């Protein structure tokens, strides 16, 4: 646990698991680095018409919200999250970027404070992996989506990660990331489940597209923005949890982090990871 905010999350929203990466300023910076690095890959084909009502569920510190607002300046965007502190950070970020047409609201994704068919579109990015019951959340999101409206879902899949050199310690640290999230009730392998989740909610799945990130020394911006600032930083963030849960000892975990850093520095290092983006219609 990470203090009073996380206690509140567990008590009020028991099916929303403790956020595996924590709520530090460092994590907020990692989320922004991730969003900026992957904007073209994940969001090039996402935009909404002027006047359309868009709900973003699980907006966090506003990393994806800023992208949505920039790409769809005429849309009416409502962004929700359970964490008030994250919403405050999102507001500061949006204001600093001059993006003022977004309503931020504290809300529970399992019991949304909106009427039936209140939105034309729903957008979800990196939320379902943190839920104990994503199907129940999806049913609620479907309720507030108008007939013929679209829902876009983007999730990663940690099981899709491959890197070279893949030392035993680096593989161990990465597996700790998967295991910590599973212990907390989440699913970091959820990207591969998007089709059955959406179809099971009674939605017509129009597309599920894998979005692969491949990195080697020819792509220094991706080495810095994705391997160093996104992936390695993400694994580093679960160090205390992995050790506290008995999944690793400090020396082995720290060696894994060191090996991941060496991978980013090595002219022979390669890294591959796949995100999944699904679009469905109610």
Write a compact overview of the structure shown.
Helix 2 (25-43) runs parallel beside helix 3, helix 6 packs across helix 10 (250-265) and helix 8 (220-236) packs antiparallel against helix 10 (250-265). This protein has helices spanning 4-12, 25-43, 63-71, 84-96, 134-143, 168-183, 194-200, 220-236, 239-244, 250-265, and strands spanning 53-57, 76-81, 102-106, 119-125, 145-156, 162-164, 204-215, 270-281.
How is this structure best described in words?
The protein is an alpha/beta fold. It has a single domain (about 5-280), classed as Rossmann fold (3-Layer(aba) Sandwich), CATH 3.40.50.150. The protein has ten helices and eight strands. It has helices at about 5-10, 25-45, 65-70, 85-95, 135-145, 170-185, 195-200, 220-235, 240-245, 250-265, and strands at about 55, 75-80, 100-105, 120-125, 145-155, 160-165, 205-215, 270-280. Strands 1, 2, 3, 4, 5, 6, 7 and 8 form an eight-stranded mixed β-sheet that branches. β4, α5 (about 135-145) and β5 form a beta-alpha-beta unit. α2 (about 25-45) packs across α8 (about 220-235). The longest helix has 19 residues, at about 25-45. It starts with a helix and ends with a strand. The model is unreliable at about 1-15 (pLDDT under 50).
List the main descriptive attributes of the protein structure presented here.
8 strands; disordered N terminus; alpha/beta; Rossmann fold; 282 residues
């Amino acid at each position: 646990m990470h203090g009073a905010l996380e206690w509140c999350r567990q008590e009020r929203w028991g099916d929303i698991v403790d956020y595996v990466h924590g709520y530090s300023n460092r994590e907020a910076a990692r989320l922004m680095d991730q969003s900026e690095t992957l904007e073209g890959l994940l969001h090039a084909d996402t935009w909404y018409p002027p006047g359309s009502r868009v709900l973003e569920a699980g907006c966090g510190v506003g990393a994806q919200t800023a992208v949505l607002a920039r790409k769809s300046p005429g849309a009416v965007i409502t962004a929700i999250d359970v964490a008030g502190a994250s919403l405050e950070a999102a507001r500061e970020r949006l204001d600093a970027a001059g993006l003022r047409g977004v309503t931020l609201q504290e809300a529970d994704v399992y019991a949304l404070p909106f009427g039936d068919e209140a939105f034309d579109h729903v957008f979800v990015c990196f939320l379902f992996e943190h839920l104990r019951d994503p199907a129940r959340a999806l049913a609620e999101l479907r309720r507030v989506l108008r007939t013929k409206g679209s829902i876009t879902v983007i999730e990663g899949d940690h099981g899709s990660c491959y890197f070279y050199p893949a030392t035993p310690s680096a593989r161990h640290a990465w597996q700790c990331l998967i295991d910590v999230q599973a212990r907390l009730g989440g699913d970091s392998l959820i990207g591969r489940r998007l089709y059955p989740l959406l179809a099971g909610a009674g939605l017509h799945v129009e597309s599920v597209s894998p979005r692969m990130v491949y990195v080697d020394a020819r792509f220094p911006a991706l080495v810095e923005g994705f391997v160093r600032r996104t992936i390695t930083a993400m694994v580093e963030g679960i160090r205390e949890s992995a050790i506290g849960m008995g999944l690793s000892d400090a020396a082995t975990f720290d060696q894994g982090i060191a090996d991941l850093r060496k991978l980013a520095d090595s002219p022979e290092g390669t890294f591959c990871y796949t995100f999944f983006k699904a679009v469905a219609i109610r």
